[in-house]
Amino acid sequence: MKTVAALAKHTFKESLRKKTPLVIFFLALVLLGCMQFLPGITPDDRLKLVQVVSAKAATFFAIVVAIFLAASSIPADLEDKTIYSVLTKPVSRMAYILGKSLGLILVTGILLLAMSLISYGVVRLVALQAATKGLKEPLMAKMPLYASSLIHRVEGKDASQVPPGKMVGLTGPKKMEVEWQWEGIKVSDFPPEEITLEGKFLVEGGVLGGRMKFAAINLTSGQQEEVFGKPRPHEIFSISFPSSILSSGGPLKVIACAEDTGIYFGVTLRNLYLLKKPGSFTINFLKSVILIFLQLLVMVPIAVVGSSFLSASVSVTFSFFLYFCSNIVEVMRGLAHTLTEPSTGVLGITTLGHVHGPVEVAEQTLIVRIINTALKHLIYGISYIIPDFSKFAPANFLADKINIPWKVLLLLLLYALLYAASLSVIAFLIFRRREVGK
Amino acid sequence: METDFAVETKNLTKVYVDFWGRPKVRAIDKLNLSIRRGEIFGLLGPNGSGKTTTIKLLLGLIFPTEGEAVVLGHPPGDVAANSRMGFLPEESYLYRFLNAEETLDFYGQIFRIPRRERKRRVAELIETVGLSFARKRPIKEYSKGMSRRIGLAQALINDPDLILLDEPTVGLDPIGSREMKDLILDLKKRGKTILLSSHLLADVEDVCDRIAILDKGHLQVVGEVSDLLSLKDTLQIRVRQVSPGLRSKLEVLLRENGAELLSLEHPSRTLEDLFLRTIEETKSEDGSSPG
Prior knowledge:
The structure holds two protein chains of two kinds. By secondary structure, chain A is α+β, with helices and mostly antiparallel strands. Chain A has two domains: 2-135 and 281-329 and 388-432, no CATH class; 142-279, Jelly Rolls, CATH 2.60.120.260. Chain A contains eleven helices and 15 strands. Chain A has helices at residues 2-17, 23-36, 43-79, 82-87, 93-132, 281-307, 312-327, 329-340, 366-385, 395-399, 406-432, and strands at residues 141-146, 149-154, 157-161, 168-171, 176-182, 194-199, 202-204, 212-218, 224-229, 237-242, 252-258, 264-267, 272-279, 349-351, 354-356. Chain A has a six-stranded antiparallel β-sheet, with no helix packed on it. A four-stranded antiparallel β-sheet of chain A has the order 1-13-6-10. In chain A, a hairpin with a 2-residue loop joins strand 2 and strand 3 (157-161). In chain A, helix 1 packs across helix 5 and helix 5 runs antiparallel to helix 11. Chain A is globular. By secondary structure, chain B is α/β, with parallel strands linked by helices. Chain B folds into two domains: 5-229, Rossmann fold (3-Layer(aba) Sandwich), CATH 3.40.50.300; 244-286, no CATH class. Chain B has helices at 51-59, 79-82, 100-110, 115-128, 144-155, 174-189, 201-207, 225-229, 244-256, 271-286; strands at residues 5-17, 23-36, 40-44, 66-71, 85-88, 162-166, 193-198, 210-215, 218-224. A six-stranded mixed β-sheet of chain B has the order 5-6-7-3-8-9, with helices on both faces. In chain B, strands 2-1-4 form a three-stranded antiparallel β-sheet, covered by helices on one side. In chain B, helix 3 (100-110) crosses helix 4. The mean pLDDT of chain B is 86. The chains are: A alpha+beta, B alpha/beta. Chain A binds chain B through residues 2-3, 6-7, 9-10, 14, 17, 80-92, 433, 435-438, and chain B through 16, 56, 59-63, 77, 79-80, 82-83, 85, 87, 89, 91, 93-97, 106-107, 109-112, 154, 158.
């Protein structure tokens, strides 16, 4: 372990002397651009922009540095033959791989931390400006409480339980309704004045959205309140009830139905939620930095695996390609899905497995079918092997001011650790039999 | 199991293959070597004869196609073997961004030498190899001779039992070369086993106890230097204060007794001797030492 630490420290020093920390200035430039230019946007949008851009830019720069350093680490040692003087010392090849990986994770992690500190300062500054222009609570972390069940009803009967992740549709007027139910509500978690529900529905059939009626019922006290909301496409909407609706902790039921004809609302268990008292922005920001760090934790070993058998340039390319794929895992699965049903969805628009619009049924030759099937399995296979970085992307949480749950963070941490450990073993297995000198 | 031999190879063979796995070069062919503990063993041969390949096989940097090697009782590349070995590569491949102290400190850390002990040993080694004047300079600014010296220092950081030196005197001037050879002899006095490869025959002759000559991967000759070089049927007499009369008497005496006189002349000293003495004299005259 001491050997690994010595190697890690050395790798760290080496990267610093290569002047990699200079990328921080690029981030500073990008952020300066966001702050100073684009005068036309609202304070709220500017704040959103700065947060999203800083998170994405910090991720991008950290990943680029990680890939370049890690993908060229072993080839560089082989090239200038410094590896001779290391591997002829009591350094096992596993220790060598681990030392390299840990050192690079440390370097890029510290780089990320430095960039995040700058981002944090800038975000605070922009929030201060926004506050002077009258924006209330510019920085916070909303704490959503999700429903425990969702029931879908057509014409007042045929009630069915909607499983998590599944979307059900609502069209008006009043033919169908959905019913969310919350249990285990702790009243002290909620603001004393008003209870707010927020949501983001899939809205099709009109850009201005449509009216929906929401009825909240406290199942213990029997208190009932009704409000109207107007969800629009791609936007968060909110509705409020008097706080007495949560008296004695519920359970609370919210029944929603569409009022207008011709508008389609797609809802899921988790896209309407109760808002608890907001949490600290700083802690949420810290969590977002951890999420980005977890990407590094996975990406560095990926690039090290590449560098254990490829040349520097090939392994840089390979790592970038994998990183790109890891960011579009859903798109890849969607593509594979259309290949499973090659006769549908050619002209229509596919949303979450539903096909809207005209469908062309094309006859396929045997060869095309074989190729399609092979491609489908290949793309599916790859999409399950590579990490899904969309799960590690904090930008959406920050833009919507939503708290990143500790549980999610912990699960992703375990996932990243497991991933990094397996990759290191793979790198070792490849590198173990590698001849390091001709 | 510890044996009398520091290094043993059995039918050690290395065939380099191309990208498709087709054999390209047979660098070492069925090499059987035994190096005794405490001796200086020289590996000789022209360029491309397999000296460096043999050393890399013994270090576990590359793997044999056939046969095996045992180094200090362990397979090559084993952490336990490496912890008691030192290696000076053909060129000193060190981290160019570090200075001499940082370099030795880094390798010391790898050997888990405690901080205080490490500091002492680093200072001592820099002194031994004569780099005190450049200990804070980054290695990328070093001359070839200086790189050689720091390379040797890193090979000795763990006070190894077995030291592999690949072309130790290459790039050194005659003084450096002499110092290197003195150091090697000194290491032997301290009970170390040394394997060195070279194509500079004079160096090998000066320090080695036993040598092996390799050619195109084959072992051609192996044995004690004194045995291999002594001409058993010839006798050399070196005497001082011989008058011309005695000289002619000697010649007559030898001829009368049937001996074949090959030479009777003033021996010349080697160029190396002359060079070293000249430099030594100028040094004592201006009292300064060259870098």
